[in-house]
Every structure is written in C-alpha cells, then in structure tokens.
C-alpha cells in the first residue's frame, strides 16, 4: 500500500509542475465543455493544434453533473473553453458566477456562441463586456462581403479579412486568406475599455433574421459589428468571445474561400491560422511579460539604501522578459517609463535598454522631502500590464550637512561685512575728526 501511494505521488509531480506557474505562464490544463461529444470530432483539428503545443485537454459534456472547476479551494484547470452555445444550465457546481470567479482569479476563457446561443452564454458574454444581438433569430448578413459558393444562399457565410493590426495578438505572419464566419453579431460595451475587436465585419454587413422581412433598421450595422473579440482583464486574465462555433470546425478549416468581388480564390481559408494565433495569445504563449530584479541605489554604489536625501544622484533599473511559449526572452521596447511619485510624479523618465532585457536610468532626487515611490505602469496593446511600485523616504539635509558658506549667499555675506567695515570707518571718522 505504501509503495502504491509513493508511486501515485511521483506520478502526479510532473503533472503539477506543468500547471500554470509564474515561471511557465502558458496554460496547460484546459477544461473543454461541449454540447455534444460529436463536436470533439467535428472540431478535432483545432483541438489537435492545442494538444500539439503541449496542452492537456479534458473534454466534458456541459451538463455533466460531476464537473467542477475547483476542489478544496484549488482550481483544477488553468483555462476553460465553452463550446456549448445551447446549454441552458451547466452541470455540477458550475454556473455563470463560478465562471466569472474563475476569470477573476486570473484564469483564461474561450466562449463560442452561435445562432442558437442560450441566455446563459449571452449572460457570460455580457459580463465580459460583449453584447450579442438581442434578436434571437438574427445572424450576420453581408450581401457584398459574403463567401462565394456553388449556391448563393442567403449570404450568411461571411468571408472577413478585417483583422486587428497587432502582431502580438495575431503573430507577425500575415493572414492571406479571409476567415469564414457564420454566426451572430455582437457589439462592444463602450464603457469597457478592455475589450478589443480582433475580427470585424465589413461596412456592408448587418445583423438580421434572413428568414423574415426587415421592417425596421437593424440594431447592428457595418464595422460596429464584431465577429471575434478579446478581453484582457486588469488581472491579466484573457478572454476570447466568438459569435460562431462553426468557424472552429474542420469544415471551415479545410474549406476553400473566395470573397465576393475578389478575383482571388484561396485553396484554404484563414480560419486555422487565425484561430491558432489568437489562441496562442489567449493562453499566454505570446505577449506575457514579467519584471524582475528591480533595483535602485546611489550613483557609484551598489547597495539599496533605506532612505535618500534630497538632491542625491540615483540609478534605477529593472529587467523585463517576454514568454515565447517555451522560454523567457528579453523584451525590447523604447516606451517603458519610471515615475518618482509622491501624490504626483516629480520625475518622469523613459528607461534606456541594453537589448538584453535590462532597463535603466539615472536622475537627481528632487528638492522635496517625504515618502516617494518608484512606479512603473506599463500598458501596451496585447501585452500583459506591468505595475511595479517601490516605496522609499526622502529626507532633508541634516544641520551639519549644509555647506558652511553657501555660494548663493555670497552677496549677503558681502553686504554684512561691508556694513561692519562701513560702521567701523564711520565711528573712527566721527570720533577723531574735529
């Protein structure tokens, strides 16, 4: 029995070590909730692309009464994929509140909806800053930007190539072929500055029910329609919301595509490349930063002091690295700044870098004493935000640290001594002159 326990313990150690950690930020354990196990085979190419990058996928039916996100206060998974657009109620201990708490704890989420999206899926999306069209029968229609097919159909199969211009989110390799999309439209909550459109509809698109006649203007029109959106929360958790589950399918991955009005026909759609690159960002394989070795000291010294004096010359440095999916690489940028802050920044300096991840600068402590902070607040599109703060007091000169004769006071010294000399001369003249 003891040998069995030891064997199980040694077997679990590698699994636990491969989970989400600050040293290896890429998600490893992913729970995939499905409407039907048939989705596992119909969307197998997408799942295989995740597994080939080292992810451990756990497939469950969304209404399985035994599913749970955490046990004994510890989360069992690093990320959650919801490929269950029609689910009205999750099984086990999972509900909308549990999923939002999962994200609030720093974990990542992918939500794929569709024309039959349930109120539960819509509620989760709304809480994340995305609003699906309130018309339950409405889908995205585009009579100019549709995908050309053998049968014209109702132009609900969209070929979109309006991508976000961000290499960190979509990778540096250009996506040549349009992405096939068939599903519902959503808009971004204007009060939520954390939501970004990754794939937008064309200016000629609109959201409507293709089976009924339009009696009033659609509520969502043109480029305001988002097809795929991402959110990076303030705790650096990442979320992807798509209005189409079918865009993840093998059929769309392998389908040829020609956008209406374009003479170019592509043998393969851009879905696989697009979703692979976006998933790399969502699961922190790209755009994840960390800051280490924050140091400050007086010029010419190496030890960090407990207090500075006004007008001291100091040096500040920090090392910033980016996770490449396998290793930490030096992060190189020219827009990292440090503030020397007390109520407001007294000093704001752009940090220089040595192209090896080290950022540094030097400056003079202002002639103001109090409790200051070294602050680095770094927010760049697609990257995890960095918020560094180190508190340090600044004192005035002691009474025996002032210069004995202050150069700026020489005119006053001269005035005092000339007054004394003048009084002596006046007294001598007054006393001895008849």
From TrEMBL:
Signal sequence, renumbered to the chain: 1-19
Domain of life: Eukaryota
Keyword Transmembrane: yes
One protein family per Pfam: OST48_MD
Single GO biological process annotation from the record: protein N-linked glycosylation via asparagine
Domain OST48 middle: 296-433
Keywords for this protein: Endoplasmic reticulum, Membrane, Signal, Transmembrane, Transmembrane helix
One GO cellular component term: endoplasmic reticulum membrane
Membrane association type: Single-pass type I membrane protein
Localization, UniProt: Endoplasmic reticulum membrane; Membrane
Domain OST48 N-terminal: 29-282
Function of the protein: Subunit of the oligosaccharyl transferase (OST) complex that catalyzes the initial transfer of a defined glycan (Glc(3)Man(9)GlcNAc(2) in eukaryotes) from the lipid carrier dolichol-pyrophosphate to an asparagine residue within an Asn-X-Ser/Thr consensus motif in nascent polypeptide chains, the first step in protein N-glycosylation. N-glycosylation occurs cotranslationally and the complex associates with the Sec61 complex at the channel-forming translocon complex that mediates protein translocation across the endoplasmic reticulum (ER).
Subunit structure: Component of the oligosaccharyltransferase (OST) complex.
Protein family according to the UniProt entry: Belongs to the DDOST 48 kDa subunit family.
Protein name: Dolichyl-diphosphooligosaccharide--protein glycosyltransferase 48 kDa subunit
């Amino acid at each position: 029995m003891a040998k069995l326990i030891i064997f199980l313990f040694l077997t679990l150690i590698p699994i636990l070590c491969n989970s989400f950690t600050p040293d290896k930020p890429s998600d490893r354990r992913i729970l995939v909730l499905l409407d039907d196990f048939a989705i596992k085979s119909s969307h197998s190419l997408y799942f295989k692309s995740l597994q080939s990058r080292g992810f451990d996928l756990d497939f469950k039916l969304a209404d399985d009464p035994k599913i749970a996100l955490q046990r004994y206060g510890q989360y069992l998974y690093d990320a959650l994929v919801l490929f269950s657009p029609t689910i009205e109620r999750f099984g086990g201990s999972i509900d909308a509140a549990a999923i939002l708490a999962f994200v609030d704890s720093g974990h990542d989420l992918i939500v794929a909806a569709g024309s039959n999206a349930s109120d539960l899926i819509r509620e989760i999306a709304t809480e994340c800053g995305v609003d699906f069209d309130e018309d339950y029968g409405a889908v995205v229609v585009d009579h100019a930007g549709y995908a050309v097919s053998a049968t014209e159909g109702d132009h609900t199969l969209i070929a979109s190539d309006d991508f976000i211009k961000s290499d960190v989110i979509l990778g540096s390799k250009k996506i040549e072929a349009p992405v096939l999309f068939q599903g519902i439209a959503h808009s971004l909550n204007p009060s939520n500055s954390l939501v970004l459109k990754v794939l937008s509809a064309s200016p000629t698109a609109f959201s409507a029910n293709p089976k009924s006649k339009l009696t009033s203007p659609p509520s969502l029109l043109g480029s305001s329609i988002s097809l795929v959106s991402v959110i990076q929360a303030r705790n650096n958790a990442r979320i992807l919301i798509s209005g189409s589950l079918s865009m993840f399918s093998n059929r769309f991955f392998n389908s040829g595509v020609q956008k209406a009005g374009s003479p170019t026909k592509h043998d393969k759609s851009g879905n696989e490349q697009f979703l692979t690159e976006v998933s790399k960002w969502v699961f922190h394989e790209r755009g994840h930063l960390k800051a280490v070795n924050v140091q400050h000291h007086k010029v010419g010294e190496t030890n960090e002091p407990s207090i500075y004096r006004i007008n001291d010359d100091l040096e500040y440095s920090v090392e910033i690295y980016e996770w490449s999916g396998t290793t930490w690489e030096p992060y190189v940028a020219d827009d990292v700044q440090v503030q020397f802050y007390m109520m407001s920044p007294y000093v704001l300096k752009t940090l220089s870098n040595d192209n090896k991840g080290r950022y540094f600068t030097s400056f003079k402590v202002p002639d103001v004493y109090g409790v200051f902070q070294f602050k680095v607040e770094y927010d760049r599109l697609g990257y995890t935000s960095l918020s560094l703060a180190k508190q340090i007091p600044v004192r005035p000169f002691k009474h025996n640290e002032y210069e004995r004769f202050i150069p700026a006071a020489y005119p006053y010294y001269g005035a005092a001594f000339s007054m004394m000399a003048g009084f002596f001369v006046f007294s001598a003249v007054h006393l001895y002159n008849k």
